[in-house]
Amino acid sequence: MLNADEINLLTDICELLKMFDDATHYVSGDTKVTISLIIPVACGLYPNLEKITTKLQTTEGLEVCELLKKGVEARLFQFEKRTVTGIATMLDPRFKKEAFRSPFNAAEAMKALEDELTISPTIELEPEEQSQIGVDGLSLIGYVEEKCQTKIKNKRVDLILALRQYTEKPNSMQSLDPLTYWKTHFLEYPSLAKVVKRYLCIPASSTESERMFSRAGQIISDRRTYLKPKHLNTLLMLKKNQWLLN
């Protein structure tokens, strides 16, 4: 039987580890965008650990909490400095710059995204038809259109302006799927939407690939030694995408 002190200690440990369990499940989903969750979750763990100290009942619990805070600071805060996670967080309309702890890291992620936009091929949208204003078919302000056509355009400046416009808009609700947002705002930010396709598809963890290996091991058994690779791939594909039918 456990005594009262041991029960209090276990209660503290469970309270501390619960948020890490929630964070693990949060970034290990297979039907939602997860790469952009790494920085917000990593940065959110630290203040939650600071708040929970008032609930801890034992000295050992406080010591564990301090060790966890140091571990989060040493291991997880580094994701703010990485290009992939930084760009993915910036492209998530729920987070943008506000998800970063450090303004410097947010500025570096913004710069990396600007560079990524510059080297990416620009999507050219069909120009809208210009209405002619004039008398008897003769445009009285045609010289303005001619000057607009000869105006020098700077691709990088245009992309940076679009990016600034996107980041300055209010953040979306946390319940919004970022893919739904970009599906409806594709025409507004075509170049940004193209970068989104390359970054937000990255999984945050290897959980799903490990699950696929486990399923493959369950399918291939001693009684199915003649199962061909193409049939195995088909079975795994059907199992993986079964959620689409629900």
Helical amount among residues, as a percent range? 55-70%
Structural class: mainly alpha
Number of strands: 2
On the 0-100 scale, what is the average pLDDT?
84
Annotation field: number of helices: 11
Strand arrangement, largest sheet? 1-2
Instruction: Work out the radius of gyration.
Output: 26 Å
Low-confidence stretches: 125-138
- Kindly give the count of domains: 2
- CA distance, first residue to last residue: 46 Å
| Beta-strand percentage range | under 5%
Order of helices and strands: HHHHHEEHHHHHH
What spatial form do the alpha-carbon principal axes imply? flat
Largest sheet features: 2 strands, antiparallel
Architecture overview:
The chain has 246 residues and is mainly alpha-helical. It folds into two domains: 1-127 and 154-203, no CATH class; 207-245, no CATH class. 60% of the residues lie in helices and 2% in strands. It is built from eleven helices and two strands, in the order H-H-H-H-H-E-E-H-H-H-H-H-H. It has helices at 4-26, 38-52, 59-76, 83-91, 103-119, 142-150, 155-168, 178-184, 190-199, 207-219, 229-240; strands spanning 134-135, 138-139. A two-stranded antiparallel ribbon has the order 1-2. Helix 1 packs parallel to helix 3. The model is unreliable at 125-138 (pLDDT under 50).
